[in-house]
Design goal:
With about 500 residues, the chain is mainly beta. It has a 15-stranded parallel beta sheet that branches. A 9-stranded parallel beta sheet has the order 19-22-25-28-31-34-37-39-41, with no helix packed on it. Strands 11-12-17-16-15 form a 5-stranded mixed beta sheet.
Length: about 500
């Protein structure tokens, strides 16, 4: 890999590497078998075998990855082929064949319906969740593509949370959810460059039309008052219960081009001492979930006690973006002490005010293992917080990152802490900014291990690193071990008793 992380290709629309040059290489999201590829070749690329490091201690009975094959493309993202899929992994832990099915349709549904047939669907996702809770049974919730605003989303303004295992299946395209509403906009009579809407609180405002270099929404800057907003394109201000927005292109503000996220409402969240299992899947290629915003994360699983029974949370072809606020930074994916397996495939976690994927195991119940397959994350740490990472695991988690693409975060791209162990196979991280830009002390670095953490890097492509940039950093008694890597172009730094070596 050379040059900027941008040269790896735009990962804004997921999934991207489920299909490479028209050849399917991953199982269908609903769990079908992968398309066979002759002789471990993929459009002229030779597959390379993958042997996970012995020190990682990966348990293939949790997720069988003995069939891993790595494909490397000059100037492009790597690909890992495996028969493992989120749907199949979920079915192993929480068999869902035969579960009751609830249907949701934003365009044709009604919350007065029973929701048990496609012909009489619910209007709101939370109605399906509440129905399953009331029935006391696990459920499949099939959600038709559409935009599900706060009153139609998962949590109904923090009032609803699943109490059963659930599989959420998007069909017909993308299902967009978040703590935003359909607003009534009008040009302000005093500040004519601004449009206003009534809003009790606002955390972040985005331009849905002008996309950044990663294909994400462009964020508008918050200013103190309406006069300042009126004078500066690309800004917003909340004055009392009036939201002022001055778009950079000066066109009229509408729900079609502007989205304001509330600062105190969940997107999807499950908390407490009792754990449940969840899957976010797509019925067909291209179907999936886009979870936007969330005051404590776009996807939050926050458990407050150890849990002895291994469970699972999985997602395929989903995006988790725009979480948190400047005043209260949050991770896009925030998981605390989920016992068992966390498995994301072809998912993106970008533009949070803190981390992209953040996984903890503070309560150390059943072992927590995490896998990211073909995942990505860019431009995280957009608040005032420090040490913002795109992919980070803590405590005693054992994790794998398979051909991920990460970059432009305000901290280290990949960061492991505590006694965690992580192996990265073909993972790319570049253009990290460090947190000095946010008032911290960490210079830019791509892979960082602290405390007694153990990090293995296998055939990970290298970016062109400039002066003052660090590719590898190990601290405390941590170790970073590499193999099959090009000579480092940037610095590596081992502090204290830490080591950086080959294996």
């Amino acid at each position: 890999m050379t040059g900027s992380i941008l040269e790896l290709g735009n990962r804004a629309d997921m999934p991207l590497r489920s299909i490479l040059d028209g050849t399917e290489i991953l199982p269908a999201l609903a769990g079908a078998a992968p398309v066979a590829l002759a002789a471990d070749t993929l459009r002229g690329l030779e597959g390379e075998s993958v042997t996970l490091p012995a020190g990682l201690g990966w348990d293939h009975s949790v997720l069988d990855l003995t069939d891993l094959v790595l494909f490397r493309r000059p100037g492009g993202p790597a690909v890992c082929r495996t028969a493992a899929s989120p749907a199949a992994a979920f079915a192993t832990r929480s068999p869902y064949a035969g579960w009751p099915v609830y249907w949701v349709d934003r365009a044709a549904g009604s919350d007065a319906n029973a929701g048990t047939t496609a012909a009489a669907p619910f209007l709101s996702i939370h109605k399906a969740i509440s129905a399953a809770n009331a029935a006391g049974t696990p459920a499949i919730v099939k959600i038709k593509a559409g935009t599900y605003e706060r009153p139609r989303g998962f949590s109904n303004s923090n009032a609803v949370s699943p109490q059963q295992d659930m599989v959420f299946v998007a069909y017909g395209g993308r299902v967009v959810t978040g703590p935003f509403d359909s607003l009534t906009w009008a040009r302000d009579a005093t500040y004519g460059n601004c449009f206003t809407a009534t809003r009790s609180n606002t955390g972040r405002v985005f331009d849905l039309v002008a996309l950044d270099g990663f294909g994400h929404y462009t964020e508008l800057s918050q200013v103190a008052d309406a006069a300042t907003c009126n004078a500066h394109p690309g800004t917003w201000a909340l004055v009392g219960s009036t939201l002022y927005v001055h778009r950079a292109d000066a066109v009229a503000v509408s729900d079609a081009n502007t989205r304001a996220y509330l600062s105190n409402v969940d997107n999807f969240a499950h908390r407490g001492s009792t754990q449940k299992n969840f899957a976010f899947l797509g019925e067909s290629a291209g179907d999936g979930f886009d979870l936007e915003g969330g005051y404590q994360g776009a996807l939050v699983l926050n458990y407050t006690a150890a849990w002895a029974t291994p469970g699972i949370v999985t997602a395929a072809g989903a995006t988790f973006r725009y979480a948190g606020t400047a005043a209260n930074p949050a991770d896009n994916v925030a998981i605390q002490s989920k016992a068992g397996l966390v498995f994301f495939a072809d998912c993106d976690a970008s533009k949070a005010t803190k981390d992209g994927f953040n996984i903890h195991n503070s309560y150390s119940g059943a072992a927590l293992r995490a896998v990211a397959l073909h995942c990505s994350g860019f431009d995280n740490g957009r608040g005032a917080s420090t040490s913002n990472n795109t992919w980070t695991v803590h405590e005693d988690i054992v994790a794998l990152d398979l051909a991920g693409i990460y970059g432009r975060c305000r901290g280290a791209g990949v960061h492991i802490i505590g006694a965690s162990r992580l192996a990265c196979i073909g993972t790319a991280s570049a253009d990290s900014l460090g947190d000095i830009v946010n008032g911290g002390t960490a210079p830019p670095s791509e892979f960082r291990a602290e405390n007694s953490a153990q990090l293995w890097l296998d055939r990970c492509p290298l970016p062109w690193e400039g002066a003052g940039r660090i590719f590898l950093q190990a601290e405390g008694t941590a170790a970073i071990r590499t193999r099959g890597m090009e000579p480092l172009r940037g610095a590596k730094r081992a502090l204290g008793a830490a080591v950086i070596e080959t294996y």
